[in-house]
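note to self — DONT lose this again. spent like an hour looking for the file last time. sequence + predicted structure for the chain T wanted, 320 res
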Amino acid sequence: MNLVRTAMLLAFMTALFMGVGFLIGGTSGMMIALAIAAATNLFSYWNADKMVLSMYGAKEVDERSAPEYYGIVRDLAARAGLPMPRVYVINSDQPNAFATGRNPENAAVAASTGLLQALSYEEVAGVMAHELAHVQNRDTLTMTITATIAGAISMLANFAMFFGGNRENNNNPLGFIGILIAMIVAPFAAMLVQMAISRTREYSADRRGAEICGNPLWLATALQKIAMAAGRIPNDEAEHNPATAHMFIINPLSGARMDNLFSTHPDTGNRIAALDQMAAQMRQTSTGQPGAAKAGRKSRSVPTTGWGRGGSEPPKGPWS
């Protein structure tokens, strides 16, 4: 079913890409856009994860360089029955995280230094469980490819005025109106696709992530902390690459985060409420049994390391 959804998404995004090409250059522009879209789709399938990780300057870590962070991901992956993903750290003060990769066998998870510094051990586990849920649900391929193609569509639309500047040689049947449509409607349509993809998958990943880590409240408190900090701390890389915003656990872009058509993520309060309800249900069905969702477990706080504050090299691990 995920394969069908991914194929449908690729077809739609390709058609949108061709539509932009038609509005810019008529039939010839559409054919050129088709060729570009085909190459982009192929390239995205194999390399979109590497592009996104490189875009954010993500550094791969292992059990020696980040023992507790790596150990959290390793234990959660085993609990979920997933292959061990590659583990990355992003040098950013904004607490956030995302997952990428074309399948569980080629997946990667990334957390920011701000997240590793600001959250407790249990809260980091909740966040990484959420990201592994995206891997298990095979959302990562769809979300990563969408980010790549949406960025390409926006770029093509931005070039519309240059492609259509010479009206004598312009094959666009709609003339300058077509160029304006390409510049305005195409990026907007791509943005709506990103929003629909992210919003429909976040609730599912929240629920599965809570099941993987064993306690919905860990993720609930993490979401609250991340959302509050993300509103105050900018993410410059995300601001320069807004097509990737839907990949993060919390919208990394500045601005209001409302649960409406124009939000890349569901309202954080609604997500927390759903997790609180899930925790209450787990308490009812598992009272007195090990693994029940209880808030009473003492949290191991993460000491400040200075990692992510501009240092050229990270220390040996976020909790070392």
